[in-house]
Design the sequence.
């Protein structure tokens, strides 16, 4: 079942017009980057793997309300990702940051529960 996107956008070309074939989609758990026309490539980055988020805006991008979000991740195939020339970059950065933090917290909580169950089982076997 496909997740409902929290945000979707596309890379913008000159003057902020969407004349490119790169699309971005953010869900509760993943960021998808789809590019290409004839040969399509879709990159999936799990949000809990995102380690650092940086917003970059040139003077030209600021004039047209655009920006680029640079991500550093622990993903093997995409350790650094750029979400290039998108509209409302500050809002997207905040949304992405909040979701990444929530996913890391959920993963950590899940690991704590698993470790708690494992230690409880070993305690029972030693009794």
Sequence:
């Amino acid at each position: 079942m496909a997740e409902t996107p929290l945000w979707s956008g596309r890379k913008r070309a000159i003057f902020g017009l969407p004349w490119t074939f790169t699309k971005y989609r953010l869900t509760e758990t993943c960021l998808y980057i789809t590019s290409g026309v004839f040969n399509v490539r879709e990159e999936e980055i799990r949000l809990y793997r995102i380690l650092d988020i940086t917003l970059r805006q040139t003077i030209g991008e600021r004039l047209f309300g655009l920006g680029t979000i640079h991500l550093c991740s622990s993903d093997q195939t995409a350790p650094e990702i750029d979400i290039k020339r998108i509209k409302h970059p500050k809002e997207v950065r905040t949304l992405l940051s909040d979701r990444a933090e929530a996913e890391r917290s959920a993963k950590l909580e899940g690991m704590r529960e698993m470790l708690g169950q494992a230690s409880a089982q070993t305690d029972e076997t030693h009794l």
